[in-house]
Amino acid sequence: MPLFWRIFLLNALVLITATALLLGPVTVSTPVLLTEAAVLTVGLAAMLVANALLLRIGLAPLQRLTRAMTTIDLLRPGRRPAVGGQAEVAELITTFNTMLDRLEDERATSSARVLCAQEAERRRIAQELHDEVGQTLTAVLLELKRVAGHAPPDLLEELHQVQETTRAGLDEIRRIARRLRPGVLDELGLASALKSLASDFAGPSLSVRHRLGTDLPPLGREAELVVYRVAQEGLTNVARHARARHAELALRRTASGVELRVRDDGRGLGDAPEGAGIRGMRERALLVGAGLGLGAGPGGGTEVRLTVPVPVRDPDRNGRS
Fold first, then answer.
1. Coil, strand or helix: which one is 169?
2. Fewer CB atoms inside 10 Å of the end CB: C or N, the chain?
3. Cβ within 8 Å of residue 104, ≥6 positions away
4. Helices then strands (H, E): number in the chain?
5. Residues in contact with 37: Cβ distance below 8 Å, sequence separation at least 6, in sequence order
6. What is the model's pTM?
């Protein structure tokens, strides 16, 4: 029965019962006797309790739907309120779940376009830094070296300082270019790129250890880039916010794919809201159907865990050796 008619009939039943009591043999004295007032009070209370109970049962699925609407996050896909209740309520919840499916698909598609555009822009900027700025600084170093060969002795020290400053700037440009577009990822693969990334973040105040499995399954180009970017963002958060002394970057094979872990011994997440970096990691994970989890590490600090599924290849389709 539709929700409108169930509520209408329930209230109609209460009114009919009250009218029948008034028109029936029951009389109310003037002034009202104590027993008559007690009977009327008990009857009214019973009707109100029955009305409230039936409404609570009928509207409970709507309350669950309301809670789901306030807690749903499109960056954590798959959460759906259970379909229940009568026809109209169940149809409403089903429609809401269908809308969530469409919104998640549209968000994934738009995020993929945005991230692809970001990667293309990163590649362009890295190429310009390497080709234009890098070559210019290299030419400046060569010119300084030539000038130093003919300079008077009292200027040699200053020229050497300028050379070292230029060389440090060239190294910084190359480091920025590597972070923008990791060429080692394309040339030597994911494992070498992660080792290089751990070395880049290691320093006097932070020790970064890497543990990379040797039996990793082959990943697609997009999945490798997602793993690299999540590791990069995880280590960036450790270096900037965690106040950690030690960090660990681990990549291992699982039954369904690969798992990336970034751990530290810092101060942890606490009650801080998720920033743009973490939301960016979640969006990247959605591109390849991966799961991203953040929480406290086994020994304190923070742990970022990315699980990337690898599709199983059909041997009959790919051929047998």
1. helix
2. C
3. 74, 77
4. 10, 5
5. none
6. 0.62
